[in-house]
Write a structure and sequence with these properties.
This protein is an alpha/beta fold and about 350 residues long. It has helices at about 1-5, 25-30, 35-40, 45-60, 70-75, 110, 115-125, 135-145, 155-160, 165-185, 205-210, 215-225, 240-245, 260-265, 285-300, 320-330, and strands spanning about 65, 80-85, 85-90, 130-135, 190-195, 230-235, 250-255, 270-275, 305-310. It binds coproporphyrinogen III.
């Protein structure tokens, strides 16, 4: 998998699933009956156990450390909860220059010693690479400004357009939080990092270029000294692909709206690809799902490619279907399929 992230190819295609841990697994739901989501993150043994669950069950080629994108915010004192069926809800939204004081520097060793410890425990038990992750600056800003999940991030964009200096300071702080969190995860053994900037697709190209890209570029520059592959993912980014590549990631995660061959043609050769099965396909009967997986594989690049979904696993997915996807991807032979 790491070779594929570096642009290489292997006989067997690597595969993992975004949000592979969590509610789709009965063994996760059993632990969740005893502990809240953020609580699991603060107990290294539980976080490591939940991180390993999908690797055992699916035979995926990577684990992703179990946590949430808002975990570092809570660790620096931002009052929040994760509401089931809704997502992160922030007690005091950030909407002015004054509110920025709630966002101090994140010091993982002091604020979240369980983070490095959970990563170390998971890595010690894994025989596949562990991916560390953080929320992207725009996506975290959207939760902070809106006070919770939102469809179109309208308040966030209004702040971005009307108070560019406050906006910039907010994003710079979130960039530092992501950098410090990812550095701690890599120091504890993570072999790659993924930045989930899930909601950037709501921005026009000019908006992204002007108000977000410079900060994300600083994030990826800062990550380069860690020496691990750096993945950048967002949903609905077909109109932003070229700009996203300019942020400097090694790997771009694309959703199902852009066929992989089209994404390949638009992105620079140095960038590897990850994706992009529609998570909804996992709810279809196997013959339909199989056809959808094959159609992704047939459009996949020859090298520098890791199979994944185009967004996270849906909680109602059948674990048996995900296991069959892994088997199909692992046994797929591009030559046999007539793909050059
Ligand atoms: O397996 C993995 O991928 C690791 C775990 C992980 C979680 N959150 C745990 C979680 C990861 C990578 C995330 C990232 C995350 N969190 C993102 C980026 C990825 C994406 O889907 O776009 C975002 C936007 C969030 C914010 C968030 N946290 C949402 C929207 C939700 C869903 C709320 C719901 O109930 O539908 C959460 C909660 C959450 N984070 C759950 C899990 C397993 C489910 C709720 C629970 O177990 O209580």
């Amino acid at each position: 998998m790491l070779a594929a992230y570096r642009g290489g190819r292997s006989e067997r295609l690597p595969v993992w699933f975004m949000r592979q841990a969590g509610r789709s697994l009965p063994e996760y739901r059993a632990i969740r009956e005893r502990a809240g989501l953020l609580e699991i993150g603060r107990v290294p043994e539980l976080a490591a156990e939940v991180t390993l669950q999908p690797v055992r069950r699916y035979g995926v080629d990577a684990a992703i450390f179990f946590s949430d994108i808002v975990t570092p915010l809570q660790a620096i004192g931002v009052e929040l909860e994760i509401r089931p069926g809704t997502g992160p809800v922030i007690a005091s939204p950030v909407r002015s220059a004054r509110d920025l004081s709630a966002l101090r520097r994140f010091e993982p060793a002091v604020d979240a010693p369980w983070l490095g410890e959970g990563v170390r425990l998971a890595v010690a038990e894994l025989d596949v690479p562990l991916i560390g992750f953080a929320g992207g600056p725009f996506t975290l800003a959207s939760y902070l400004v809106e006070g919770g999940p939102s469809r179109a991030q309208t308040r966030t964009k209004a702040l971005m357009l009307s108070e560019p200096l406050t906006w910039r300071r907010l994003l710079e702080r979130l960039c530092d939080i992501a950098l410090d969190s990812l550095r701690a995860q890599v120091q504890a053994g993570a072999a790659a990092v993924q930045v989930f900037d899930s909601w950037i697709g709501s921005l026009a190209p000019e908006q992204y270029e002007r108000h977000v890209l410079p900060v994300v570029r600083r994030l990826f520059d800062g990550l380069s000294e860690l020496g691990v592959p750096r993945i950048y993912f967002g949903v609905g980014t077909g109109h932003l692909l070229e700009l996203i590549a300019r942020a400097g990631p090694d790997v771009v995660g694309v959703d199902w709206r852009v066929p992989l061959d089209a994404a390949r043609a638009r992105l620079p050769g140095r960038v590897a690809l990850q994706g992009n099965l529609d998570p909804a396909a996992c709810l279809a009967p196997w013959p339909v799902l199989e056809r959808e997986v094959l159609s992704v594989l047939e459009r996949a690049p020859e090298r520098g490619y890791v199979f994944n979904l185009g967004h996270g696993v849906l909680p109602e997915s059948d674990p048996a279907a995900l296991a069959r996807i892994v088997e199909l991807v692992h046994t797929f032979r591009r030559e046999a399929a007539g793909v050059a």
